[in-house]
Design brief:
Shape: globular
Radius of gyration: 28 Å
Distance between the termini: 58 Å
Number of helices: 14
Order of helices and strands: EEHEEEHEEEHHHHHHHHHHHH
Helix content: 40-55%
Strand order of the largest sheet: 1-5-4-3-2-6-7-8
Largest sheet: 8 strands, antiparallel, barrel
Strand content: 15-25%
Structural class: alpha+beta
Amino acid sequence: MADSKREVERKYEATPETRLPDLTRAAGVSSVVHRGLSELDAVYYDTEDFALAAGSLTLRRRTGGGDAGWHLKFPVSADVRDEIRAPLGDDLPAEFAGLLRSRVRNAKVVPVVRILSARDVHHLLDEDGALLAELSVDEVLAERLTEEGRGTTSAWTELEVELADDVDPAVLDAVERRLRKAGVHSSASPSKLARALAETAPEKRPKARKAGPPRTAGDHVLAYVRRQTEAVVRLDPAVRRDLPDSVHRMRVATRRLRSAFRTYRRILDHTVTDPLRDELKWLAGELGTGRDQEVLDARLRSRVAGLPDTLVLGPVTARLDLASVAAGAGARRRVADVLDSERYLDLLDALDALIEDPPLRRAAAKDPKDELPRAVLKDYARLADRVGHALEQPAGPERDLAMHEARKATKRVRYAADLARPALGAPAKEFSRRMKSVQSVLGDHQDSVMARDALRALAVQAHGAGESAFTWGLLYGREEAAAQARERELPEVWARASLPRLRAALEG
């Protein structure tokens, strides 16, 4: 069974002659204990086109040391990675195969580099003898294992400082200051693998010319599509690991892609993007099952927590727990099945193909300051019609549905403005902010609609079990009042969001 660890470390250049400074002069470090030498033997894996390295992921099988086994590392931020560990075995762990799937698709992972390290370990301790960080000086030998460049080697010495669990990162800063004063400087490579790949490359190929900043309307749309596609791929492992907010963020990325394809049809040929929109809608719907349940569960628990104890009659919390566990387990299984499906992988391949060979139309070559506002304001006009229609409806199901449709249209306008921000600057940012305020009102109203449906179902279940349904009815009434408050708030919020000066600013 795999387990995970948050790894916080910094790497430094060193030589065999490098001598450690007195690190007890670093703030917080009371003593340095030499823990001895160990021999590490690691084989690193990737696809033939190095898809994992492109995403800064590391997959290795290592023997030696205290943590022999399979290790899979995901970047979190500078100096920080999540490391997933599995027991040592000959074959790639099945859990790792799933976590890699969005990157490797149906390609095989093969050995690419073997790295041997002679590690000299020191523990940095505080005044109570507790571990603050582990410092190691590694003598490294890397050997290329791919067919092209097989046998090419590289050797170097490096120094690593890894923070112990739950220790203030300020310790790393203090240690680094002492190292710098001793002439030890940060490594130019983020990892051993990155350095090994660079230094054992079979030949020096001409570097691909980097794309310049977006200039045309098409450049801006494609840059946005690329960012959202990468977000889907990057968040896939987080969703599989059930990390907080990962499903929501992945779902938002799919929605942003759908919105871009719909809004900017003058730039990207809709005959190519329409099928992708359909598949993205399918994916968002599958992801939404679990996410909607999370939002609903949090809302209902908050409402119950806000009641005086005297108004909570019956096993209210227990019934919420039962409903949440049943719905959550089913949703997680469903999402896992979707992410393992060929349909999902085909969608990722199709998005990559669109980015590689974009179906640009004539408007793609136009000035973004002319073309992008045109698209945003067209969506805005559609939104204005939907808000007006919602405000005209009598209270009840018709208004609820109309406000839900307006909410979806608001998201589309906001996403369109977000795409245009790099080109249009502050006006697009302000426009997006105003749209977000409208979306917040409409979103809370829709959450209340969903909560009332759930509360009625819970009341029926409670009544059938012989429990009091009083609390469920009370909560239903409060949700109804909350929805009415949002309905009264909408005209004012919409008026602020629809000021003519915002439209004028967006049009330049």
